[in-house]
Amino acid sequence: MGSEMCIRDSDDPLWLIAGTAAYLRETGDWSILDESVAFDNDESKAQPLMEHLRRSFQYTCTHLGPHGLPLIGRADWNDCLNLNCFSEHPGESFQITGPSEGPVAESVFIAGMFVKYGKEYADLCSHRGLADEAAAARESIAQVEQAVLTAGWDGEWFRRAYDAFGQPVGSKECDEGQIFIEPQGMCVMAGIGKESGQAAQALKSVEERLDTKYGVLLLQPAYTTYRLNLGEISSYPPGYKENAGIFCHNNPWISCAETVLGHGDRAFEVYRKTCPAYIEDISEIHRTEPYVYSQMVAGKDAPTFGEAKNSWLTGTAAWTFFNVSQYLLGIQPTLDGLKIDPCIPHTLKGYTVTRRYRGATYHIRVENPSAVQKGVAAVVYDGKPLESNRLPIASPGTTVEVAVTMG
């Protein structure tokens, strides 16, 4: 991610931090940060991976818009939200027509990403002994978080963006597309608004305005006319694809976000609605393979509400595994060992997990005698009680027994 490169989708730099941090939490292999990696496939410009992460983080810091939120560029995760492209005539590309980037259009979703994965970058710096860099990173993160809580807040949910004219997208001020799923999931996953109550209000708005019996819609109300300032997202028929379809890829974000607030019942409810194992009895409506996730399911504005499209073409399975293993079951790898922090439906009495981690095998039994949704009352590690829900790192080749009591 060199400064000489043109980054069109503003989420790209942050996924590099997310992936690297996840690798380090899982393996503890810090040597990867010293590996030489080429910029733009040019070995003459190779730098250690840590420098790539540093430039990725700084890219967002140096590309903020008028509200202190990250500039969106050509698009962000939602590559159909094209706020700088202005595709006006048939045949023009939605993503590369016009300037494709600019100094005004901002993404609240990317701001949420920056807060979540920026914190992970700061943690890497701390573990590397880069105390000053970690402190500077956390200061930048705090500034963007504050921008989300102010300019990014619409009163009952997080706004989606600001367009190239400085007008809000995903706001009650809009006639259509008033609320979007992406910032509600990512911002709450980042912990934004948890203390102020804004996170809980945002998820309440998702349940009230976006939820359906087949999953959570990407936006509401659906766009019924093409919007030059928004691009491809408004070109699809209402209820399909990014225009108010049920986009399975980001439904897990809402489930993850609910666990951040301790809402195990609701988190599991969201998970079930798109999980193939739970929807086989509506196969005549779903109409795709009953054992695989699809990119999207037609939303309530579509004449084929509940019908899935583009099976296999999705990152849903990976995000769902992440959601189930780390947010619901709560077996979370950290830089310093496994952390056990379940968030489950209160009716679940318990479960067992076999987890292989850094060469050791952990047999984990979780019991929920008090029928709670979140909270750990006691942890016993190989017969010895722990004061924390973070487990010691076992030696490679060993097997440990872990008993967790929720409460």
Topology, please?
Layout: H1 12-27, E1 36-39, E2 42-48, H2 49-61, E3 106-107, H3 108-127, H4 131-150, E4 161-162, E5 168-169, E6 179-180, H5 181-189, H6 198-209, E7 211-212, E8 215-216, E9 219-220, E10 246-247, H7 251-260, H8 264-274, H9 283-286, E11 294-297, E12 308-311, H10 316-328, E13 331-334, E14 337-340, E15 350-357, E16 360-367, E17 376-381, E18 384-386, E19 399-406
Parallel strand pairs: 16-19
Antiparallel strand pairs: 1-2, 3-4, 4-5, 6-9, 7-8, 10-11, 11-12, 13-14, 15-16, 17-18, 17-19
Helix pairs in contact: 1-2, 1-3, 3-4, 3-5, 5-6, 5-7, 7-8, 7-10
Explain this structure.
This protein has 407 residues and is α+β, with helices and mostly antiparallel strands. The protein is 31% helix and 19% strand. It contains 10 helices and 19 strands. A hairpin with a 2-residue loop joins strand 15 and strand 16. The longest helix is centred in the first third of the chain and has 20 residues. The N terminus is likely disordered.
Descriptive labels:
single chain, alpha+beta, 5-stranded mixed beta sheet, 3-stranded antiparallel beta sheet
Q: H/E element string?
A: HEEHEHHEEEHHEEEEHHHEEHEEEEEEE
Helical content class: 25-40%
Oligomer: single chain
Largest pleated sheet: 5 strands, mixed
Shape verdict: globular
User: What is the rounded Rg?
Assistant: 22 Å
CA-CA gap between termini: 45 Å
Strand content: 15-25%
Structural class, please?
Answer: alpha+beta
- Count the E strands: 19
Overall average residue pLDDT = 95
Low-confidence segments, given as residue ranges, are 1-5
Strand order, largest beta sheet = 15-16-19-17-18
- In DSSP terms (H or I, runs of 4 or more residues), the helix count works out at 10
